[in-house]
Amino acid sequence: MTPAIKRLDLVGVVIRNAAATLVAVAACGGSPAAGPDASGGLLPDGAGAGRDAASDACPAGAAGAACVLALYDQAATSCAAADLAALRTELDARTAVGPLWAAQRALFRTAAPAQIAGTFDAWSTSALASAPLCADASLTIAVGAVPSGFHTYKLYAPATQAWSLDAANPAFAYDDFTGNADGRNSALDTPDSGVGHLVALGEACSTALGNCRALTAYLPPAYDAPDSAARQYPVLFMHDGQNVWDHHDCCFGHTGWEVNVTLDQEIAAGKVEPIIVIAADNTPARNNEYGLDPATMTAFMDFQVRELQPQALALVRGDSARLAIAGSSLGGLVSMQLALRYPATYGAAASLSGAFWPGMDTGVALRDEMPALGKQPLAVYLDHGGQPADDSDGAADTIEVRDLLVHEGWTLATSPACTRGDSAVCYHWEPDATHDELAWKARAWRFLEYLFPAS
What we know:
By secondary structure, the protein is α/β, with parallel strands linked by helices. The chain has helices spanning 65-78, 81-92, 259-268, 286-292, 294-313, 330-341, 366-373, 395-408, 437-451, and strands at 4-6, 100-102, 105-108, 115-118, 131-133, 136-145, 150-157, 162-164, 171-174, 184-189, 197-206, 211-219, 233-238, 276-280, 318-328, 348-352, 379-384, 411-414, 424-429. It contains 9 helices and 19 strands.
């Protein structure tokens, strides 16, 4: 039995929350829930539809939102069986895409009637309700006005006064509100918002390692825009996935790296090109998988390259020819191990405060193996804090690895005056910086600008 990613598809992703069983609804006819546009009237039949003449289908995924909303308008007006069937077919093909948004309107589909409360309606528990369209319980829909932007929301059941995530939507945002037991809200990120968003990609499971790990992806701004539907993006894989986002309750009180926040800023500033980031959570076997036990690390690297990554890439529009790997501490060590041992897979690697000491006592540390691994066509970023004199934050070890890379043929530059190249290593020392996520958050822009410079 081979390792597999469990439920790792955006047509079957379930955000694991026992209460998250609802999906959105709308009434038939001319009520406010029927979906007025900005002028207060229904969109004309077929407006913005863009249906394929040969297949009579809307463009796939979120790119077909305008088309599906036009079908909704037609079905809500006619209640004809054929119109309802056409709408159902399109929505069934998007069972885990989340809300569909176009022209300042959003369509939510829920499994049962619910109120949709979020930032777009001041968290009202009565402004937007889903209901069976034309008395068809399989089409429980709400359509309402939603302005451009990044919005968070939840579903509310008046009968039980229960709040739940939208199980049909993999997009989410972390929430610091103490009354939010999930610590998350569902997210609706319009294609013109100018920011990216996080999506849950299910779990990656390994029979060889005997465990599973959650996967989360950052999708860049305009990822769901119709004119981006065929675009492929460079992909950065990261370790310790629990720690790399803007989760303020993680990481021993240090908060996460906020890579998603940094990327939004760097992309908007034109310093980093739009990229996808896929982060896999660590497991209780983290230390051994990331390098303390050579056999376990070998099994983990094989799983990462041959199972996790190809299956994850099938769920996003990533360019498999432009992959990078990054991590910190032991995650930085295994990132370098992966990049040097799989040069046909990765074009770049970043190690922040890399823990390069495992194997030193037996002569099998990475530094001992580098001469045999030799020069690879790889852009490398290395940094550390601390002080070389006492090797705090792996300072002396990182410098030794840096110098070995130069000896093998890489050219050295100091951040931020680095130019990416497959024979370049970019180095940064942040004196006395500590070994934690807060320090890595402060330096994340350096490796992102180096590995993914905007053209």
